[in-house]
Amino acid sequence: MKADQKPTYVAVLDGTTTAAGRQARALGAFLHAGVTWTTAPDGTAAQPTGVTLLFYAGEDDRERLVEIAPTRDVVLVRTPARRPDLMAAAVARFAEDTGASLFVFAGGPLGTELAARLACRSGGGIATDVLDIAVEASRLVSRRGVYSGHLTARVELGPRPWCVIAAAGWYDARQSPPVEHRVVADVRAPAADRGGEMTPPPFADVELLESPSTGDLEAARFLVVAGRGAGSPEGVERLAAAARRMGAAFGVTRPVAMNAWAPLDRLVGVSGNRVAPAVCLTAGASGAPAFLWGIERARFIAAVDTDEHAAIVTEADVAVLDDGVAVLEALAGLVAGEPAGPPD
Q1: 158 phi and psi, to 5 degrees?
Q2: Phi, psi of 101, rounded to the nearest 5 degrees
């Protein structure tokens, strides 16, 4: 899986998600305005070349996704949606084949996972929530916000490849992608197991009702999280009841806990629990950064919200635009085998 020439940097874009357009704009803006090259990694004058490693699921999306790529050169990798194991294997293979020095990922759970896996496999360095970077001959210096953005920290990376995750603020940038694109290669993702066959989906073995976890949030395999959109203590309790019926653990966002609609030990996020369930369902959660940090290790996130512009809608693997309480109660009924009522 090689580009026709060695790229200096690689933008990694997940085209299997509905947030691909925003990711592409964020990556393009970051590469255009957030990266400064002082010298190339070999010490010569900086003339960086870039390529987009673009994951896509089907032929129908192929041309559209190529047109939004943040670099002129594009390497297409066909892979099923929501398969970070296969994507991670493809990124690692590409890094090994090309020897690229810098890999840039969009913010979010998948970008964080892919960057961490690449850094771990290759022995490279990783920087998260990055505002900007300066690339020198043998090191990369990044700036990132800390303490809720009130201070800025300087992080230096030495070992390569450098794995950089752009801060969420770059999603609001308006950087147009290149006018012309060139597809360098179009391949299938490498198999993630040693036998060469596609591995099962990462959550295929989850038996939600047979192994419930309603106590310890950090150990839960199936989690329901209620946000302020539940509307009232009664709404939160209805969501908690729906979670119990489905065999799920139950957590809440900070506004719910601060309004005393639920106990503080149910809080998910920076101020509470950091969870890693196989499946996380959120209802009425806006998707504040502190909350997203709490659920970013979930293997599959489904969000129900009435606001199509909410951050959680773009970060989730699946989003339903509807009332969270009503949808989760209906889902709990289906899981319990109850007949569906008449349509509203």
Answers
A1: -105, -65
A2: -85, -35
Give ∠ CA 104-166-154 in degrees, rounded to 5: 105
User: Same structural domain for residues 167 and 226?
Assistant: no
Global pTM reads 0.58
* Euclidean distance between CA atoms 291 and 271, whole angstroms: 9
Distances from the Cα of 298 to the Cαs of 39, 111, 293, in angstroms? 39, 13, 10
* 134 in any annotated domain: yes
Q: Who contacts 40 (Cβ-Cβ below 8 Å, separation ≥6)?
A: 8, 46, 47, 48, 137
DSSP line for 178-197: PSS-EEEEEEEPPPSSTTSS
Task: Tell me how far apart the alpha carbons of residues 104 and 11 are, in angstroms, rounded to a whole number.
Answer: 5
User: Do both 146 and 47 map to the same domain?
Assistant: yes
Asked if 13 and 27 count as a contact pair (C-beta separation under 8 A), the reply is yes
Residue 60 shares a structural domain with residue 171: yes
Q: Using CA atoms of 20, 51, 158, 97 in order, give the dihedral in degrees to the nearest 10.
A: 110
Q: For the chain (length 344 residues), average pLDDT per consecutive 10? A: 73 91 91 84 67 93 93 94 85 93 89 89 91 89 83 90 91 69 88 45 40 65 95 94 92 92 91 92 94 93 93 92 94 73 47
If asked whether residues 152 and 15 sit together in one domain, one would say yes
The CATH code of the domain that includes 104 is: 3.40.50.620
